[in-house]
Amino acid sequence: MRALREGRDDEARACLGKISGDDQEFGRARNLLAQVELRGGRLEEALGFAKEAVAVLPGEVGCRLTLARVHDALEDFAAARKVSGVALEIDNDHFDAWFSHGNYAFKMSDYGAAAEAFRRANALEPDRVEPLVNLGGALDRLGRPDEALQAYEKALELRPESPPILLNVGRMHGNHGRHREAIAAYERAIAADAEFSDAWVNLAVAYLRAGEPNAGLRAVAKTLEFFPGDRSATSLAMIAYQQLGDLDNYRKLYAFNDLIYGDELGVPSEFGTAEDFNSALADAVLAHPTLIHEPAGKSTRRGYQTGNLVNADDSGVFGLLKTQVLEHIERFLARPFDNSGHPYAQFGPDDCDFYMWATVLDEQGHQDPHIHPAGWVSGVYYVQVPVSNPDDTAGWIEFGRPEGSIPGVDESNTDIVQLPAEAGKLFLFPSYFYHRTIPYHGETPRISIAFDLVPKRLKRKQPPVKAGGRSELQQHVVALMRSGRLDEAGAACREALAADPHDATALSLTGDLMQQQGRLDRATYFFRRAVEADPASLQARLGLIGIARQSREHLAALELANDGLAHDPVPQLHLARADLLIDLGRFDGARADVAAALERIPYYARAAWLAAQLDESMLDVQKLATIEQNCPPAQKSGLQFAMGRLLEKSDPERAFGYYREANQAMHGRLAHAIHPADVDVLKQHFTPQLFDKLSGQGLDSDTPVFIVGMPRTGTTLVEQLLAAHPQINTAGETDLLWNTVGELARMLPAGSQMPADLARLPERAGGRAAGLYLSKLRRTAGEAPRIVDRHLQNHAMLGVIQVMFPKAFVIRCRRSRPDTLWSCYTQWFDYPVPYGYDTAAIGDAQEREAQLQRHWEQVLSLRMLTVDYEELVSDFAGEAQRIVSFCGLDWDPAVLDFHQRQAPVISGDRFGVRRPVYRTSLGRAAAFRKFFDEETAT
């Protein structure tokens, strides 16, 4: 289970595969194996394991739902719906079963059944937003827009100003011709997330349908700013040019003669003739289990369509077709294209997936005009096209006619091209080309197979623009970010990118800005663009590594670091890899990287600090002292922390001198974390009366375990011992609670403030916020009876935790004041601890924390446990059992081996928790008391 939770699929697969028999343990192991294979995309293997699990445990809903999810991944929606229906027969009050059942009904276009299933799911868990959103979609498809809007509004009450929900609202209005309402919804979504590309694309659509092409082009330009080469935006630009009468630019994008490819497919060697091959393809299509009538969200009318015909298994007749098609796509992409400003001249697909599906049309069957926005190259191969009249265009493919009714766009300013559909013929074209099938006429079905080449990323064909050194732009933006003027920093980056979209420095800085704002997906996008523009961009590579590390995707981060070092073995990348290896407890590899960094830059303070903790023998005290005296000012305090660590045991007085100088240099850069006035505010507003008024607001869930305390008091140790328990996961040190409290504040009436107006919280708002937090927590840490959230500043949030989670567990870590003070004072923190560099400030923070704790003990009914560091390390087994018991779980001896966990430990004492509990840190401050003045010592 631990390997499964930590993403070590190969290890989990090996362990689970050893479990045999026909009992419950075997059935559950098979169910977990199915989930492992499903996660890895091995669908046939997943299907076999899921069926075995159901055979052994026919009455377990979880096994049934795993099997349904596998069928869903195979796009066999009928089978998935049948299995979820059996799950509901077992447990008619199971949320996941109803929600899944609704999704499968929706995918089969049975919108009435889908709506009923989503209503049942909503009734079971009214604080979950997903059933309401999907209910809105089903009601909209049923032609009940007012009811759909009500469902979306209820979803927005749970998640105010959610861009995806607002996107659905806009689409619903747009589908019913209410373009102004659609524009308003999209603009609200963009106000919440200015770089939400789907909102910009749909805003462009709404403006074009409203007859405002200039506004539509501006929205298109915004989309292409964030996502160059976006196919939806390119197709919309064509429509905007048509509306404006700018047919020159319209035809430059259309470029029919250059970008439509037609050819005979050819016959695989396994078949004698094209007729034999097509006959085998037709038989396989008509027998395919995913073939359903008019699937939801597709353009097929009066016909049938399959799911993906080539999953992990490329064997068989469809695999032969795929091989043939890919050869033609290579020829298509290799053709020269002279229009240098065209997306197909500027970009090429990189690291692609291939999707292929079949369409079967009956009499008058057709496909509405559409594009394939995920693809780069799309195409169709005709398998069976009965011809009744050679002069009739029925069943032909047509290019150029846009979707729906667009003001100012008609056949007078639209280039329409129609090409005959003939058995054995292949067409390839850009995925942004609008195309349709003219209604077919014939006595037997018309069968075609379509496909998309879907790039995971686009690579730029033009030579990259090299970034220089530390430019004026970089200095300006960094200064703005450090002063908290993020809007101005963003404006400066956008201005630079408008002048040169391939400026690697501007792209990297935008990534830094997105990362600082917690928008990791957007940061990743900009960092990747920066690396494409300049493969030597160290800033962008370090940004990508940092995001992967922050997301606990350490294997991916190591791949990025290794790739960067292969390009240029710079010390910064060595140190980035060392940090990753330390997180994983691989200290030998980390030592080698730290040594490599110091060899290149002997005064590299960060490397010296890590060396002092990894292995003091890596550093020569006298040599480092000389380096410290002559090093650049920016490196001095870090080297002084390292010198202090090296000399603590052998020369305490000299060590204290180095620590004092290092802390004096750091002090004053950061403000205190909790100001005395903040404690007074918390004490003033969080009262027994407030909690009485808000009683019943929260969720009854006992999943969260909050660990709070001053830095260096054992919070990481407590987290790791709990995470070693098989029924406990950890989210690590996260800002999830603080972010959720921000959403809770937005639920207050207009003009309200936190915490003064918390009493004005609308009914059930606390529960809705708790549901949001719990959903994020589970996405971060996975499902488990208990999930740990360790954040030192959560101590200030215990009052809000009482409102949201009255049954939560709170563990407060405490350590003797002198040792806490000294341990903070001698630590060069990886993260900002505002008071950590001044003894008086540390003492003030300790006093404020103690005052706040006394207040919480008087007014809260939360379950709270105080863990003293001294007792924990002196009697680890006894204290560990007390902590586990407090969390309401049975004891498990794996807790005692916490240091053997292979999951990454990113912050806190990541060195100390990789070895058994030790007592050498007890009383560490005693040897240094005489060096403090009497007031501080007292």
3D shape: globular
What's the helix count?
43
Structural class per helix/strand content?
Answer: alpha+beta
Radius of gyration: 31 Å
- Uncertain stretches: 463-470, 669-676
Instruction: Tell me the number of strands.
Output: 15
Mean pLDDT: 88
Oligomerization state of this entry?
single chain
What summary fits the major beta sheet? 10 strands, antiparallel
N-to-C span: 49 Å
Assess the beta-strand content as a share of residues. Answer: 5-15%
Could you characterize what this model shows?
The chain has 43 helices and 15 strands. The model is unreliable at 463-470 and 669-676 (pLDDT under 50).
Features:
five-stranded parallel sheet; 938 residues; ten-stranded antiparallel sheet; 15 strands; alpha+beta
Topology:
Layout: H1 2-5, H2 9-17, H3 24-39, H4 43-56, H5 61-73, H6 77-90, H7 95-107, H8 111-124, H9 130-141, H10 145-158, H11 163-175, H12 179-192, H13 197-209, H14 213-226, H15 231-244, H16 247-254, H17 256-259, E1 261-264, H18 274-286, E2 292-293, E3 300-305, H19 317-334, H20 343-346, E4 347-370, E5 377-384, E6 397-399, E7 417-419, E8 425-430, E9 435-437, E10 446-460, H21 472-482, H22 486-499, H23 504-516, H24 520-533, H25 538-550, H26 554-567, H27 571-583, H28 587-600, H29 605-614, H30 621-630, H31 633-647, H32 652-666, H33 676-685, H34 688-693, E11 704-709, H35 715-723, E12 728-730, H36 736-746, H37 765-781, E13 786-790, H38 798-804, E14 809-814, H39 817-825, H40 839-859, E15 863-868, H41 869-874, H42 876-886, H43 934-937
Parallel strand pairs: 11-13, 11-14, 12-13, 14-15
Antiparallel strand pairs: 1-8, 2-3, 3-4, 4-9, 4-10, 5-8, 5-10, 6-7, 6-9
Helix pairs in contact: 2-3, 3-4, 3-5, 4-5, 5-6, 5-7, 6-7, 7-8, 8-9, 9-10, 10-11, 11-12, 11-13, 12-13, 13-14, 13-15, 14-15, 15-16, 21-22, 21-23, 22-23, 23-24, 23-25, 24-25, 25-26, 25-27, 26-27, 27-28, 28-29, 29-31, 30-31, 31-32, 33-40, 36-37, 39-40
